[in-house]
Design brief:
By secondary structure, the chain is an alpha/beta fold. It contains two helices and ten strands. It has a seven-stranded mixed β-sheet with strand order 1-5-6-3-4-10-9. The chain has a three-stranded mixed β-sheet with strand order 2-7-8. A hairpin with a 5-residue loop joins strand 3 and strand 4 (46-53). This is Core domain-containing protein. One of its GO terms (molecular function) is 2 iron, 2 sulfur cluster binding. It holds the Pfam family Fe-S_biosyn.
Length: 117
């Protein structure tokens, strides 16, 4: 298996997002990566997806980005839609949670979890 580790991440994370993901991973109790991708669906045609991934499931078709030892994985097909994405996190009571700022999106849904490109 060959992994590509980029020094300039195609998917960027704010410090708040990284801290929250690390806390969630700690609850899982294992050394997992974060997989970010897209799938068909959602209000605007495509929706974002995020889940933890076992490192053994990472393939040569994935791009791997390193954040001080924490790895973010994205398949190359999703990366076509996500390159330059900024993942942020907010603790706000209204509108809080993960927020996606995608420079490739031509339209976004009001919920911020789906987009069109």
């Amino acid at each position: 298996m060959t992994q590509t580790t980029q020094s300039q991440p195609g998917i960027q994370m704010s410090e708040a997002a990284l801290k929250h993901v690390l806390a969630l991973r700690e609850q899982q109790g294992t050394d997992l990566y974060l997989r970010v991708g897209v799938r068909q669906g959602g209000c605007s045609g495509m929706s974002y997806m995020m889940d933890f991934e076992d490192p053994q499931n990472v393939t040569e078709h994935d791009e791997v980005y390193d954040y001080d030892g924490f790895k973010v994985v994205c398949d190359r097909k999703s990366l076509l839609y996500l390159y330059g994405l900024m993942l942020d996190y907010s603790n706000a009571l209204i509108g809080g949670g993960f927020q996606f700022t995608n420079p490739n999106a031509t339209q976004t849904c009001g919920c911020g979890k789906s987009f069109g490109a």
